[in-house]
Amino acid sequence: MVQTQLEAAREGTITEAMARVADRENRDPEFVREQVADGQAVIPANTHHEALDPMIIGREFATKVNANIGNSETTSNLEEELEKLHTAVHYGADTVMDLGTGSDLDDIRETHIEHSPVPIGTVPLYEAVKQAGSPEDITTDLLLEIIEKQAEQGVDYMTIHAGILAEHLPLTDGRKTGIVSRGGSIMATWMEAHGEQNPLFQVYDELCRIFAAHDVTFSLGDSLRPGSLADACDEAQHAELDTLGELTRRAWAHDVQVMVEGPGHVPMDKVAETVERQQEVCDGAPFYVLGPLVTDIAPGYDHITSAIGAAMAAQAGAAMLCYVTPKEHLGLPDEDDVRDGLVAYRIAAHAGDVGSGRPGARDWDDALSEARYAFDWREQFRLALDPDRAREYHDQTLPEDNYKDARFCSMCGVEFCSMRIDQDARDRADGEMDRLESTTNLEASPAAAVNLPPVGTHDTGDRPSLEDDGREQVTETTGDD
């Protein structure tokens, strides 16, 4: 009989996963156990995911980042999805969600689970639509069958859209952008067509039994999240959140771990308020937010508009941030978009941890600042969040090796470099300013691993190819093909 992380924690047991998490977070294992036992943190760790390096999500720990990948009917194949997975892990994703809606979903999912050192999440409702042919044709039995299959495959957490109820649908009538969650729109269509209550809500206790049998973590979907600033914090969003609070407590009663998903599009003045309301309604269950985007005017740059809100949410207590790529609202992200989204969100997560005073989080900033002041270019590159990009930009104008020891860059040149001028002034024997010394020791920092360089510490040097797996590449087809 499987014992979930929550059940073990409640019984006073520190599991191997908890011990590993404590090491990565630089925290006492007993504190980790207490946080899991109280439902304030989750360790997504399906018993069938053998390649997993356990991690923890909770407001008392370093802020985590999720990357969404996945194919569509028109774009991407298994090889490309595997490459996206490795790119996400390399640039610091703490978890990866496979949101594929195209072909070969089982093969792609199994490949991810077989090779991913980070937790894999899914939205099983997407596969249900794929198999049924339309939202209206989904059946309860099909939902349970797919959810149990994915649990057996090793999925660590699943987004379940059980909080959107029939009585919530009229509350969306005055919105500017209606229901923007894929899962929310699917369930709303089903309820409208059948005149019945949300089937995921109806069989929720059965879902809890399936999750408990494989130690799958709930990620309770925010089906009615706002898709525009105008819809933020409205009655529909709040009504669903109240239901998610009830579902959180019901899952806990089955010893199943829970985190709760959040918006969305939220103006800056309401970001902290949104986090605080979720923490109150859901009894402190970890909050997992998409962005939020703080303005709607920048298609093509929504990794920036959302990273602003994400940093604010992290400082306010959000436990995990779901990255947004530059392609948000425009198209399916490719490998480069995954990189840009991950870097933006690692910045947001780290900035939130610095802002909230997370132990040791600022040590990385201080070490890089000291290297910058010392004109230690190689150390700057080594400490950079994205060393390749930092080196690339420097070398575009000053590529020769001798410039790695220069006391200037191409921005100001040798005559107008303020740091060089400051150093020279401090070096004068008759000056009144003292010389500045580097004092930060990252090896002695109390920071969690995600707040120390380098990011992407998982070894992907021997990352698999499809040929190694013995799998055939699947090519997507469109149109009459």
From TrEMBL:
InterPro entries: ThiC, ThiC/Bza_core_dom, ThiC/BzaA/B. It comes from the Archaea. Substrate binds at N68, M97, Y126, H161, S181, R182, G183, D222, S223, L224, R225, E261, Y288. It is an enzyme of class 4 (lyase). Its cofactor is [4Fe-4S] cluster. Its EC number is 4.1.99.17. Pfam families: ThiC_Rad_SAM. [4Fe-4S] cluster binds at C409, C412, C417. Pathway: Cofactor biosynthesis; thiamine diphosphate biosynthesis. Binds 1 [4Fe-4S] cluster per subunit. The cluster is coordinated with 3 cysteines and an exchangeable S-adenosyl-L-methionine. It catalyses: 5-amino-1-(5-phospho-beta-D-ribosyl)imidazole + S-adenosyl-L-methionine = 4-amino-2-methyl-5-(phosphooxymethyl)pyrimidine + CO + 5'-deoxyadenosine + formate + L-methionine + 3 H(+). GO terms for biological process: thiamine biosynthetic process; thiamine diphosphate biosynthetic process. GO terms for molecular function: 4 iron, 4 sulfur cluster binding; phosphomethylpyrimidine synthase activity; zinc ion binding. Residues 428-481 are annotated as: Disordered. Keywords: 4Fe-4S, Iron, Iron-sulfur, Lyase, Metal-binding, S-adenosyl-L-methionine, Thiamine biosynthesis, Zinc. Residues 428-437, 459-474 have a biased composition (Basic and acidic residues). Zn(2+) binds at H265, H329. Catalyzes the synthesis of the hydroxymethylpyrimidine phosphate (HMP-P) moiety of thiamine from aminoimidazole ribotide (AIR) in a radical S-adenosyl-L-methionine (SAM)-dependent reaction. Belongs to the ThiC family. NCBIfam families: PRK09284.1 (NF006763), PRK13352.1 (NF009895), thiC (TIGR00190). This is Phosphomethylpyrimidine synthase. It comes from Natronorubrum bangense JCM 10635. The lineage of its organism: Archaea, Methanobacteriati, Methanobacteriota, Stenosarchaea group, Halobacteria. The gene is thiC.
